[in-house]
């Protein structure tokens, strides 16, 4: 399985993806699921992938190939993030159609993508692109999207995340969402790939790969567990009528 | 959907179930999914249900009918909790076979059950009974089972619950697991039915129905949200290399 989470907040974008793929429990590998593109000072684009690995690799492969051969439209020729999402949606649709057009077979090749970024002169955007090639756009009401094994990590985002939150706090919130998922589901695995983009910087961040022994991640994971246990102990005892 | 959670701990058993059923988003009802049986001073049995409502009601109906007509074997005639689980598993298997024996159809009528309790002279047990009628048993390594929409509420159980935990703390942990699920998934809904059984008491608890305006539940839900937000704010900031 996979877990990817993308946030579009007032001050910027946050992306975290795991790297575990599995074809059965005895065929586990590490594959990158977070890809960044861009032209320094002009545009920055991130794609996060979940689902059929051959499909997602083909989508990324086609996008890169068009860039390499300057076959327009490509990621650096389109004018807006909306057109970026359309281009990627069409690419995804075509990749699946190349494998099968049988409606009963199609879903075996499905993938979901998160696409975020900013192009000079327009606002940051974050899209969730469906296997059918259509997509939805994050808003201040719903500032995050998840793909893959999303349920374990959703409660902390629903409870603590807000559009106006400082970027570093949102990043920690997102890391905790991953920590919760990693503990409860073995199909999501370290290392994680993370990227933080500051609004209007048009700078392409290097990002950081977080390994299982990463001291910062280990530290906040432990501190978070302690905070939860303490929080639980501090909750008032149930009243007597709960015990009759 | 449904969320039910059962704990078998050193000091007793804890059961919480939601009450929402849905056949499509426009057909939502309240149905009890936690049923208790017993003979004061002799045996105490709880059944929690998820899945096809006609199936679960038929299982409970047959079990009650056999008790009413004293048709043995029934819940008060068998000798051990293992035999209770076998009886319920067989009943479930028969109920599904009465509707269909077509393997392609069967899964439409599936349900999962948690069965816990104690019979005088033997240890408390907690079983997860599968649609096929077979079952697994909770242990001190794995002291809890969930059925239904279980993923949202699993991280807090995985992080904070332990076999040796005091019953009241485990009860709060379980309530928080429900609060997290209720916030992230509308197919799980209030009121909740809860029951706490103290080891070797052989007392049949009344249990408590927790409505959405329940002051204790509201209080711990708010206090928990505050604790999480504070915990998140107190986590150290990421080091600079996360931001390049």
What is this structure's SSE topology?
The structure is a homodimer of 244-residue chains.
Chain A: E1 3-9, E2 12-17, E3 20-22, E4 28-30, E5 34-39, E6 43-51, H1 53-68, H2 81-99, H3 103-106, E7 111-119, E8 125-129, E9 135-137, E10 144-148, H4 154-160, H5 167-184, E11 192-198, E12 208-210, H6 215-234
Helix pairs in contact in A: 1-2, 4-5, 5-6
Name its key features:
Glutamine Phosphoribosylpyrophosphate, subunit 1, domain 1; globular; Ntn_hydrolases_N (chains A, B); 6 helices; Proteasome_sua/b (chains A, B); UCP009120_prtse (chains A, B); 5-stranded antiparallel sheet; 244 residues; Peptidase (chains A, B); alpha+beta; homodimer
Explain the overall architecture.
Two copies of one chain form a homodimer. Chain A is of the alpha+beta class and 244 residues long. The first copy, chain A, has one domain (3-232): Glutamine Phosphoribosylpyrophosphate, subunit 1, domain 1 (4-Layer Sandwich). In chain A, 34% of the residues lie in helices and 27% in strands. Chain A is built from six helices and twelve strands. Chain A has helices at 53-68, 81-99, 103-106, 154-160, 167-184, 215-234; strands at residues 3-9, 12-17, 20-22, 28-30, 34-39, 43-51, 111-119, 125-129, 135-137, 144-148, 192-198, 208-210. In chain A, the strands form three sheets. Chain A has a five-stranded antiparallel β-sheet with strand order 10-1-2-11-12, covered by helices on one side. A five-stranded antiparallel β-sheet of chain A has the order 5-6-7-8-9, with helices on one face. Chain A has a two-stranded antiparallel sheet with strand order 3-4. In chain A, a hairpin with a 3-residue loop joins strand 5 (34-39) and strand 6 (43-51). In chain A, helix 4 (154-160) runs antiparallel to helix 5. Chain A starts with a strand and ends in a 10-residue tail after the last helix. Chains A and B meet through helix 4, helix 5 and helix 6 of A and helix 4, helix 5 and helix 6 of B. Chains A, B: This is Peptidase. Chains A, B: InterPro entries: Ntn_hydrolases_N, Proteasome_sua/b, UCP009120_prtse.
